[in-house]
Design brief:
Number of domains: 2
Helix content: 25-40%
Shape: globular
Order of helices and strands: EEEHEEEEEHHEHEHEHEHEHEHEHE
Radius of gyration: 21 Å
Bound molecules: NADPH dihydro-nicotinamide-adenine-dinucleotide phosphate
CATH topology of the largest domain: Quinone Oxidoreductase, Chain A, domain 1
Length: 358
């Protein structure tokens, strides 16, 4: 049965094309023009508004993702990830035209149909329009996975204690999770917040916009010397987004009984290391001697806490206590480049792909 909607009959989609080992390039993506889907009972047609490009997607480009909660992308199949869109046509009594939706499995397409009823239906969540007003990408950033990761990482694994004068170091500090994690650590009681990131502009952003006490440019500074200077009382909490040599330097400066929030290890995502990668022998010995905890943190394990945590994030953001920055690329066609750029450090704050307006 044909559905009738006043839309063009072709839409753009991005497919996962081929893989050069351990290299993420725009050549790994392929554009296709597809016929506009027609919907049947129990389905909806959505228009994509914004997409998220995330480091975990790099692991989905490997034949094995190294984790049990995500599957590898199949060659020549459409890419999916975090996304937000609006319903343009509905044949479900549970969904109405004009409603804003988000999903963790949003396809990289201008339009898509979703089955929203029955056994094979996709998990899509309605977004409170009051919550995001004209800024729907908030749901992919401060009011989405990055915000949840930062707040739950700090509160569930950081052992931050108000009044304890703790020092936190955040790596990947100018990115989506890191920029929020440093601010949240301060709000929860850390008195010395130090960020590590890859450019001088990012360092300025952390200090001037987000009120970090200090920032280290790991591409130019002597990280060990700067940590010594900026963390005179050692390090109590480490929010680790990157792993590798940066983390080795931080761990060497960590205090006895301190805590690593093992959020991500982006410096290793282009290698075939299992996740989480073990520390090198010397650093592992230091970790053991200092009794530093290093448990894997996975935000999806805290699903039950999402509503409460999102309410807290919303309040902090709306009261102006939590600043949120985006780097936005325009158009579906920019998504591959946005992904490659984010992996190489081209973003400040959350990298968003703006596809269309509601
Ligand atoms: P970001 O916005 O931080 O973007 C990635 C950043 O990583 C880049 O901007 C770049 O910044 C930095 N980077 C890239 N390569 C390297 C490298 N070799 N060494 C050091 N830094 C590097 O991404 P997200 O905030 O979305 O993700 C941050 C981390 O959090 C990732 O490891 C991700 O996998 C993880 N994560 C974990 C979750 C969980 O549940 N545990 C949930 C969500 C994310 P720079 O210029 O500073 O190099």
């Amino acid at each position: 049965r044909e559905s009738s909607h006043p839309l063009s009959h072709i839409y753009q989609a991005i497919y996962w094309h081929y893989r050069e080992d351990n290299v993420t390039s725009v050549q790994c993506f392929q554009f296709k023009e597809c016929p506009m889907p027609t919907i049947e009972d129990g389905q909806i047609l959505v228009k994509t508004l914004c997409l998220s490009v995330d480091p975990y997607m790099r692991n989905r480009l490997n034949q094995q993702t190294g984790t049990d909660y995500m599957s590898p992308l199949k060659l020549d199949s459409p890419i999916d990830g975090g996304g937000v869109g609006v319903i343009v046509e509905s044949k479900s009594r549970h969904f109405c035209k004009g409603e804003i939706l988000e999903s963790f499995h949003w396809p990289w397409q201008e339009y898509a149909k979703y089955a929203v009823e029955g056994f094979n239906s996709l998990i899509v969540n309605k977004v409170e329009s009051e919550l995001v007003k004209n800024h729907v990408s908030l749901i992919l950033g401060v009011l989405g996975i990055p915000g949840l990761t930062a707040l739950l990482g700090i509160s569930e694994m950081g052992h931050v204690v108000e009044g304890a004068n703790q020092t936190i170091v955040v790596s990947g500090a100018a990115g989506a999770c890191g920029s929020l994690a440093g601010q949240i650590a301060r709000l929860k009681g850390c008195t010395n917040v130090v960020g590590i990131c890859g450019t001088a502009d990012k360092c300025n952003f952390l200090k001037e916009e987000l009120n970090f006490d200090n920032a280290i440019n790991y591409k130019e500074d002597d990280v060990d010397a700067k940590l010594e200077e900026f963390c005179p009382n050692g390090i109590d909490v480490y929010f680790d987004n990157v792993g590798g040599n940066i983390s080795n330097s931080v761990i060497r400066k960590m205090n006895k009984d301190s805590h690593i929030i093992l959020c991500g290890q982006i410096s290793m995502y282009n290698t075939s290391q299992p996740y989480p990668p073990p520390l090198d022998e010397e650093t592992e010995q230091i970790r053991e001697a200092q009794n530093i905890t290093r448990e894997r943190f996975l935000v999806l394990n805290y699903y039950d806490l999402f509503p409460k945590t999102l309410a807290e994030l919303k309040e902090l953001y709306q009261e102006g206590k939590l600043k949120y920055q985006e780097t936005v690329s325009e158009g579906l066609e920019s998504a591959p480049e946005a992904f490659v750029s984010m992996m190489a450090g081209g973003n400040i704050g959350k990298q968003i792909v703006h596809v269309a307006d509601p």
